[in-house]
Amino acid sequence: MQTQSPIKELKKALRLKALARRDALSADYRSNASLQLATHGLSSISLQPGEIVSGFWPIRSEVDLRPLLFALRDKGARLCLPVIIDKQTIIFRELTQDAPMIETGFGTSGPPDDAPVVDPSFMLVPLAAFDERGHRIGYGAGYYDRAIARLLALGANPTLLGVAFDCQKVEIVPDEPHDVPLEAILTESGLRSFGSIDKAN
Q: Which of 45, 83, 128, 177 could form a disulfide with 15 if both were Cys (CB 3.0 to 4.6 A apart)?
């Protein structure tokens, strides 16, 4: 029987503790914090007209990104959401105002099969835990790691902005050589920038 590496075991423990803290937040707190996060995001994120932004519909106790996403669309962004294709792959389908939402696996919702597949240049990335260096722990399936690697291999260089609640911060995320750090983290208390996130003035 194959055992997990010490780093993977540590990541798993940090993930479970951070998600337990997130789950313990009240629904009212999560709702208000999501609105605060949207306000901070709108004042901190600068996009080109028509820029493709990936987000996600909330599942379980995640941040509700919808207020921020809809506000970014009002400012000219094109939106897309991840759709699970198989156990290894997610793609991003464009979210248009008149398109219905369908179930897309693992409790997620997204645009229907006939929605255009696009490559985002600005990614709002879900996560279980993060640290002050911009390293993240995902949910363990590696979907976003592989999607980001695919975009980089195509020559794209998407801006990576993690989205979470403050309580998901950990002292340090054990990183591995293949890990791609985030350029910033957006929480209810503001934007922590580690890279080249543009500031809208």
A: 128
